[in-house]
Amino acid sequence: MMNKQIKRWGLLTVTALTAVSLTACGSNTTTQTTETAKPSTGAAATTAAVDNKPVKLRIVWWGSQARHDATLKALDAYTKKHPNVTFEPEFSGFDGYADKLATQAAAKNAPDIIQMDPAWLAEYSGRNQLVDLSKGINTADIDKSLVDSGKYKDKLYAIPLGNNATGMLFNKNAVDKLGITPPANGWTWDQYFQFGRDAKAKLEKDKYALMDATNDYTVYASYQTSQGKGYPVTVDGKFNLDKDTYITYTKKYADLRKEGVVPPADIATTDKESDAKMDLMNNDTVLIKRSFAALLPGYEGVKPGTYKFVTQPKGAQASGFLKPSMFWSISADSKSVEASKAFIDWFVNDTEAADILTTTRGVPVSKKVLDYLTPKLTPADKQQIELIKNVAPDAQPFNPGAKGWSNYTAKDFKDIGEKIMFGKITPEAAYDELVKKAKDYQ
Fold it and tell me: Could you say which DSSP state residue 117 is in?
């Protein structure tokens, strides 16, 4: 049911985004204390501002430097409005974020406000580690289907922060210099792999065309769904890794590795998404990689005007999907729940926050905020909307991740894929390992 709702949200949202746009024409974890509280709307607006008691909120998120800078500025703006509320921010790139958060939550030491990925929501909600947000935050201007994506067993545990879509991000300037045909919306996997070979023929020796996605569950899941085989792990937790599809996929990448189209394993495994120096797109090691619309501001912050999005390659079916970019959730261990709700309400609904944050977490979810921001959108912002519009018509239903399987999809799949990349096991042996591992989760 949730998959259908999210796909419906995507189609509804794209219609609204298109209409609006036509009328407007790295990564070490950091912790610091910043003085950074009157929400403009919602019941939560009354709490933190009324009692004026000093409150310090711990808040954690992942992202690019652009997202870090914008969020810190927003925290400062909030504290200027509510001097009794200060923040202790913890922020990093995506790499290692999930492990650190899981450790904190298990120790009942999670920050008050948590940036939550849709793939983890069932896990944390199912373990009673999050607060029910059904009351205290104004969601009236957010599409109902998008709000529902933050629910688990009919309770709202997460507030969506942006609209998002998967796509292939490539270095347009570099591709133009090579003189090869650039990627295009609606392309196939065969065309994608051929683009990689055509590009490699003209690249310098230590440069590569494609990322090695042998260890990337998101890319593999897109490949398997595009072959009409469904998700490797279904939304209700059934193991569905198709053997022939997996072996074909991993052998394709093995061939590309031998040909030098993708980086060797010791380089490919150093990639840290959104890191200004360690992301293999940012440091010009590869030309193209799977990414999300909401990450574009971070890449543009490093190299303005360099990148362009196209849809993910397709097979018998399309392979892209629409999703909430991320959520704010509140830890069940927080001693400042109402103050946290008040901040989230301001963050999502206030135009002052929108001016600071723009699209650093995806296209804003509030219709009023989007209307307000549209005349100010940059070309990169408009690219995000354009990708969402292009993915929507054929989008696969979004699978937010089945409860109990997050470690399998985020870690086990990656670790076993890297064994293939380093030549330690064959694709067939890797498949057998993945089947064996899956039994621990069933």
Answer: -
Burial 23-48 (b: 16+ CB within 10 A, else e): eeebbeeeeeeeebbebebbebbebb
Both 194 and 84 in one domain: the answer is no
- Give the count of domains, the chain: 2
Burial 174-194 (b: 16+ CB within 10 A, else e): bbeebeeeebeeebebeebbe
* CATH value at residue 207: 3.40.190.10
Tokens 């963050």: give the residue.
347
Q: Are residues 178 and 293 in the same domain?
A: yes
Collapsing DSSP to helix, strand or coil, 290 comes out as strand
Which two tokens mark 266?
Answer: 């010791």
13-67 per-position pLDDT tens digit:
444 444 433 333 333 445 454 433 333 344 444 444 446 899 999 999 999 999 9
What are the pLDDT digits (tens) for 208-233? 999 999 999 999 999 999 999 999 99
Q: How are the residues of the chain apportioned to helix, strand and coil, as percentages rounded to the nearest 5?
A: 45, 15, 40
User: Is 22 a domain residue?
Assistant: no
**Three-state secondary structure call for residue 166:** strand
Q: Are residues 138 and 248 in the same domain?
A: no
Identify whether residues 184 and 296 lie together within a single domain: yes
Provide CB contacts within 8 A for 323, sequence distance 6+: 6, 118, 149, 164, 165, 166, 398, 400
Q: What burial class does residue 117 get, using C-beta atoms within 10 Å of its C-beta: 0-12 exposed, 13-18 middle, 19+ buried?
A: buried
What's the predicted TM-score (pTM) here?
0.76
Amino acid type, 408: Y
Q: In terms of domains, do 305 and 339 share one?
A: no
| Beta-ladder partners of 359 | none
CB neighbour burial string for 73-91, b if at least 16 within 10 angstroms, e if fewer: bbbebbbebbeebbbbbbb
Angle at 197 between CA 196 and CA 200, to 5 degrees: 85
CB contact at 8 A, 239 and 442: yes
The secondary structure element, H or E, covering residue 221 is helix 217-226
The DSSP H or E segment spanning 329 is strand 327-330
Question: Is 185 part of a structural domain of the chain?
Answer: yes
Range of the domain at 135: 55-163+323-391
